Amino acid sequence: MSAPLLETRGLSKHFGGVHAVAGLDLAMAEGEVLGLIGPNGAGKTTVFNLLSGFLRPDAGAIRFRGGSLLGQSPHAICRRGLARTFQIVRPFPRLSVLDNVMVGALARHPAAPRARAHARAIVERLGLGAKAAQPAAGLTLAERKRLELARALATEPALLLLDEVMAGLNATEIAGVVALIREIHRGGVSILITEHNMRAVMALSHRIVVLNFGEIVAEGAPAAVANHPRVVEAYLGEEYVAAPSR
Amino acid sequence: MRRVAIAAAVALLAMLPLVPSVFGSYAVTLFTLIFFYGFLGQAWNIVGGYAGQLSAGHAAFLGIGAYTAALLSVERGVTPWLGMCRIIVSNTEALGGAVGYYITFTGDPRQFQFQDARAYYYVALVMMLAVTGIVAWLERRRFGVYLSAIREDESACEALGVNTFRYKMLAMMLSSFLTGIGGAFYAFYLFSLQPASVFGIPLSVEIIIRAIVGGAGTVLGPILGSFILSPLAELARYYFAQGGWHGAHLVVYGLLLIAVVLFLPEGAYPRLARLFRR
Q1: Alpha-carbon distance A94 to B151, whole Å?
Q2: What global pTM score does this model have?
């Protein structure tokens, strides 16, 4: 196997006495869709914040496309091709949908007219075309999740970190987002996804990593992981649907 | 409807240069103040309105610009036209301590002194139009889009590749530089500088309130704000002073600000624009 797209070694972060992430070794190949799952508080969002530069790790290394991401600011990491979405969506409420996406596009196309054209294409592709001129404040939750995705995509990432982009959506909307993520992946973007919707994440991912108390408790193909006793244990008490294998 | 509004605005603008030849000297003074505060409000708008970084310290930039231009002109004979591109001096000791400063009137245009008050009128008009042109030009470009996005959510900006610190700093630099130019104008319009008035919070309030009442973060908001407030301020100042109520116009400002925040939180311009769009 060639050098991994993303690799962490001994990645650790604690908040007071809580070890949110404890010595995480994670590797992702180019073109992979990796599902990062685990119960609430397992450390998934902390991993995302460490990878995207919003938190500094206490220990460990992060390598992306052959270079270290340690000590890099979030905007620099974005420009190196690692984009993220936020679990709690953060649109620019008073800017139009198009301008929201344009902020992302400007990272690659400094000239405003070109950035606007790219943003428009992405807005259309993600089914927000009819809302392009409207302020983001007026969007429904499903539309905001799409906008979050559109903005991240506009930065033309090599790796996209999706933090619960389906939370709070109904079945139809989830099906739409799953199709969208597949399409983005076909476009050549590697994807690291955390998701509580098991059916969706099992269907999307090539490989699943299960996190609990900041450590990997299981790893492997979706079908194998779903029946792993430690995974069932970690999720005990949670509503859990084992999806059929792909 | 929108075309009509734009045409009316352009026609009004085209008439502004004619004001001095039609109206008396009081109107010239009033309009000079409208333009001057419109200019300052617009300069503040870059960092306070677009980038959403509330600055209550813009009087300091104005004061530095005013003192620097005045001192360079009087002590060194450096023309204020150049002093407008001022040197940053932050130590009041270097300025002869925190004392007032008076400029001897010579009426030499090369020293930015004019016999005719109409000259200040035209300079102020050009300054206001120029800074508004700059803001309008920046608004649709990367700089302007980034600033608006920073106002909305800084973390989201960082995640999208925006170096928020850099853009906030650039906005502050541009805004304070322009405000300093305003200070140079102020010094040579009044010929007398008092630290309490050019460095004081009340002056910052005068600047900020114009942008907020007119509509912070819009191209025409601060200008509209100045057209509303500057005449009001002059009238209030005049009548309150006559009744022995010096400074009572600030109470009017306070009430107006409360009213705007309650009923027109975006300012007057966005409301007006929507009215015409229908």
Answers
A1: 10
A2: 0.86
